[in-house]
Amino acid sequence: MPLRGILFDLDDTLFDHDRATESALTLLHKSEPAFHGWAQDELIRRHSVELEAMHLEVLAGRLSIDIARAERFRRLYEVAAGGPPPSGRAAELARGYRAAYEEAWQPVPGAPALLKALRAAGFAIAIVTNNIVLEQQLKLRHCALDSLIDLLITSEEIGAAKPDVRIFEAALARLAMNADETVMIGDAWHTDIAGALAAGIRPVWFNRRGAASQDSTVAELRSLEPTRDAIATITLRSC
C-alpha cells in the first residue's frame, strides 16, 4: 500500500538529547569536586547507565521523575566520592543538571526542515516515544517541533513502552492506518527498530554514530540532512 504515515522516535532522533546531556554534564563536571576524579567522558558514561536505569523506574511508575533525578545523582556522587552526598546535595545536583540540560535543548540538525517537507508532501507525522507526556511536550514546544507533527504517543499514556507492539498499534489506530502504510524512524535498535519490525512496520535506523547494523536489510540514515536524501531513504525512492 502507498506510504501515508511517518512515525518518529523523539530523543536523539528529532530532539538532540545527547548534545543537551553532554553540555549539562560538562558544567557539572567542572562545578562538583566529587566528580573531578573522573574524566568527563567517564562521568558521561556512568551518567548514561544511571539515566537508563532510573528512566525505566519512571516508565514503570515506581518512581516520580523528580525522585529519579535525585537518585541518579546520589548514586553517581556516592561512587565518585566513596560515600553518600551531604543532605540535599543530590537534589541540588539534579536541579543544576536539569537547568543546564534545558538550556541546551535543540532539535537534531535537519529535523525541522525534514518534518516540514514531509508534511508538505502530505504525510501524517506521529511521535512514538518512551517517556512521560509533559516532558516530551516541553521538548517539542521548545524546539518548535510541536506544530510540525500530528500526533504524540507516549509510553506513559499508552501504558506500554517500545519495543512492545501495543504502543505502535496505538499509533496506527489513531492515525487510522495499517502497518504497511507507515514507516518508523528511530535511533535505538532494541526499542525502535526491533519494535517496529515486531509490529509489521518498516523501520529506518537513524544511525548517527555509524554503529554496526544488526540487520543489513534495514535502511539507514546517518543524517537528516540534506532533506531530499533523507526523504528518499524514508520513502524508498531513489534520489
Q: SSE layout and pairings?
A:
Elements: E1 5-8, H1 17-31, H2 40-59, H3 65-81, H4 89-103, H5 111-120, E2 124-129, H6 133-142, E3 151-154, H7 155-158, H8 165-175, E4 182-186, H9 189-198, E5 202-206, E6 219-221, H10 227-235
Helix pairs in contact: 1-4, 2-3, 3-4, 5-10
Describe this structure in words.
With 239 residues, the chain is an alpha/beta fold. It has 2 domains: 5-16 and 106-235, Rossmann fold (3-Layer(aba) Sandwich), CATH 3.40.50.1000; 17-103. The protein has helices spanning 17-31, 40-59, 65-81, 89-103, 111-120, 133-142, 155-158, 165-175, 189-198, 227-235, and strands at 5-8, 124-129, 151-154, 182-186, 202-206, 219-221. It has a 6-stranded parallel beta sheet, sandwiched between helices. The longest helix is centred in the first third of the chain and has 20 residues, at 40-59. The relative contact order is 0.16.
CATH superfamily annotation of the largest domain: HAD superfamily/HAD-like
| CATH top level class name of the largest domain | Alpha Beta
Please identify the structural class as seen in this structure. Answer: alpha/beta
Rg, rounded, reads 19 Å
| Number of helices in the DSSP assignment | 10
User: How do the helices and strands follow one another from N- to C-terminus?
Assistant: EHHHHHEHEHHEHEEH
The proportion of residues forming helix, as a percent range, comes to 40-55%
| Mean pLDDT value | 96
List low-confidence stretches.
Answer: none
State the major sheet.
Answer: 6 strands, parallel
Return the domain count. 2
Report the strand count: 6
**Rough outline:** elongated
- The percentage of residues in β strands lies in 5-15%
Strand order of the largest sheet: 3-2-1-4-5-6
Distance between the termini: 21 Å
